[in-house]
Structure formats: structure tokens, C-alpha cells
């Protein structure tokens, strides 16, 4: 029997046994509930959302491998004026339009090989609407929703009232458009009532915001003063669910989109699933929606008497060639095209390795191919192919010397630390250090020359490959599987 295959089969069945054993003691198993934000369906997916979904996927898979009971949620946010406008432009109803774009996001979960357990849509009338309605009525019952006349600058790009702070030379800083002066009567949510409590929870890390710079940003918002927020729009202005008991108003995004995190797991009927998974362990979001997740959402939960999410992890943005991705610049990178050309794992690798987890990063095709060729083709691909080719010709068994053992142990410790700190790029760097350690050992030991020593060296390398496969699993699941199979097909052909 091929010693490579033999070893690998043993290793894998051991892991399976341990997973089964863990399932049996399911009462003591830790749950882990992780979500992405729900992208807005006014445009098809781009690599910015792909990054977020992949980051969440790594954590979901990592926790699953630890034997935890994981629930990973993603979905789409489908109401609003921008969607209605985009639909009108192509002669569709907002729902038809949202259906199409949402389907593309759903397809993306397969294309990126995400392990999500559910996909929630905010136009879902069976699962989502009952929760939204229940939340609205509870907030109202608690006196936290009230009607108020409001006069202010309204930016149609933001779909929100904006203040002096958001303006530069009289124009919206984000959309570079002049806002309209609008007077409306809307429902407001009493956010201000909950801010002192939220501030304390954030300071004490009971609501952990990662990275620290984002935590300070949120505390800064609270200090500069943050009033109540508008929770509805006039019916003709907004596409969405109608306010319960008021036909003239539509529930605005906060009261509609944020509840997806509890509607999907069964808040409306307070199901066992809801009781088991809430609160979320991690909300993965982009920096542009930090305020809403760190202030409005916790305030809503406090009003509802529900526990707050434990951690909000905030990633940065991806620029393309140093510029912001935008339709008008024509530089939007399509994740489907990228996967088509380079494969799922190559895309996962680039985004997780090149973009620093919590900061902005840059995408160019040149950088992509450079990483692909050096890290994947010449890196892990080459190592796996070398070891398997050599091992197939010898009778090596696994014998570990202390040098390898120490290196693997160190790698696992650093990897765990990096993942606990949401530093995906550092976790990958640690794996690649192990890969170059193996390359160096091969060069030094030349197992193809020294005959009596070579089975031992190869044994060490095979054991290390197995660790590499295990550590890679959350990041590059297909590659990990291929390394375990050890069939010596090239993992990443050069591009
Ligand atoms: Zn704006």
C-alpha cells in the first residue's frame, strides 16, 4: 500500500472519530454564531463583500474544526429607494430586481465555497417580516418609538438625513452631491436613551469592537453626541415594509435590515434555535456601517431585553490600483470572473493574505498573479508535489524528530493566536513559514541522496504536510482536501 495514502487515511479517520465523539457530548458543546452584514441588492457583488464573507467563513470553519456548534448566517438587504430606482431604470419591479441580485449573492456563496448555514432575505415575508413587526411593536410599547417633525439635509445617496459633520463645501462627503432640504414627519427611535449603557459595555469590552481603532471611533461618536434616529420614511419615498398601524409610513433600513440577525434564527416565534444561538458571537462588518452596528443595533436589543452580540469585527475596504472601486470608474472587480480565471482557493488566499484583516488593502491583477505564482504555485503547490513524489518511491513511515515537532507546535500556537485576534493574514503567514521550513529541510537533508536517512526525513515531511493541510482547512478547504488525498496532481498550475 502506498505509505502516503496509508498514513493519511489513518490521520483522517482519527479526526472523524474525534468529531463524532464531540457530537455525542452535544450538551457541553460550545455554540458559535457568526454573521456577515447583509449587502444591499442595488448592484451585483464585488470583492469587498467577498472578503467579508470569506473572513467569516474562515472563523466558522475554524470553530467547527474545534468541535463547536457553529451557525454561519449571510443574506441580502433588499428594501430602499436606491433599489426601487435601479429597478425602474431597467423596467422591473423592485422585487423582481431584488430577486435577481439576491440570487447572484446566493450563487456567490457557492462560488466562494462558503460554509454558511442559512441565507436570509429582508423581503422574506414568512421569516423576516414577522420578526421586524414584533420588534417594531415592542420598541413602541417600551416608548422607544415616537413621531417627530424633522427638518434637515437629506442625501439621496446616503438615503438618510445628514448633518454639518457629513458635509464638505455644502456637499455630502461620501456622494459629492448637494443634499436636499427636507421637512418630514417620521417615526424616531430613542437611541439617546441607551447610549450611556452602550458606552459602558463597549469600554468594558462586554461588547468587543475589533480593531481597537474602531472601538475608539465608536466611543468618539458617543462623546460628540448622537441623537435619536429616524426609523421610518414616507411611504412614497421608500420601498419596504409598512409601519404596523400606519399605512403612510415605511420602516426604514435600521428597523428592517439589522433584525435579520435574529429573524433568521427564529426570533419571531422564539424558537429553540433562537434560544440556542443568540447572542451572536461575531458580527463581521465593513467600516462604513460601524455606527449602526455598534450603536443602533445594541440600543434596539437593549430595548427588546435581549443580550448584545459579543464581538463586532470591522474589516477595511479594498481599493483597486489605489482607487476606490466604483461603477463610474469602471474598476469594479467581479468575484465570479476572478474565481473563473484562478479558482476559488486562489481568490480566498489573495483576499485573506494580501488585505490586512482590519485595514484597507489594494487589489491589482499584477499583485494577484504575483501572490499566486510565488505563494501558491511555487510555495505550497511545489512543496506538496515534491514530498509526495519522493515519498511514493520510498517506504517511509512517520517518525518525528524534535526539530519538526517543535516547529509544528510553534506554528499551531501562533496560528491560534492570530485567529483569535482576527488576523487572518498573520495566520496564513505562519503557515507559509512552516512551508518554507520544510523547503529548507529538503534542501539541507537532500532525502533523494542520503539513502538511509531519507525515510526519516520523508516521514517528518509527511507529518508536517498533514499539519499544513489541517491548518489550511478553514482558509483553503479544497486545497486542504487535495493535500490529504495526496494524488500528486498539481495544486496550482502556474499562471
Ligand atoms: Zn451621501
Q: What's the gist of this structure?
A:
With 495 residues, the protein is α/β, with parallel strands linked by helices.
Characterization of the model:
By secondary structure, this protein is an alpha/beta fold. 51% of the residues lie in helices and 16% in strands. The protein contains 18 helices and 18 strands. The strands form five sheets. Strands 3-2-1-14-15-9 form a six-stranded parallel β-sheet, sandwiched between helices. Strands 5-4-8-10 form a four-stranded antiparallel β-sheet. The protein has a three-stranded antiparallel β-sheet with strand order 11-13-12. Strand 16 and strand 17 (323-324) form a beta hairpin. Helix 14 packs across helix 16 (424-445) and helix 15 (402-420) runs parallel beside helix 17. The longest helix has 28 residues, at 365-392. The chain is elongated and about 85 Å long. The two termini are 35 Å apart. Residues 1-25 have low confidence and may be disordered.
Highlighted features:
495 residues, 18 strands, four-stranded antiparallel β-sheet, binds zinc ion, six-stranded parallel β-sheet, 18 helices, 51% helix, alpha/beta
Rg, rounded, reads: 25 Å
Total helices: the number is 18
Q: Structural class of the secondary elements? A: alpha/beta
Strand residues, percent: 15-25%
Q: Write down the overall mean pLDDT.
A: 91
What does the overall shape look like? Answer: elongated
Number-wise, the strands total 18
Percent range for helical residues?
40-55%
Report strand order across the widest sheet: 3-2-1-14-15-9
* Bound ligands: zinc ion
Contiguous low-pLDDT stretches (5 residues minimum) are: 1-25
End-to-end Cα distance? 35 Å
Largest sheet: 6 strands, parallel
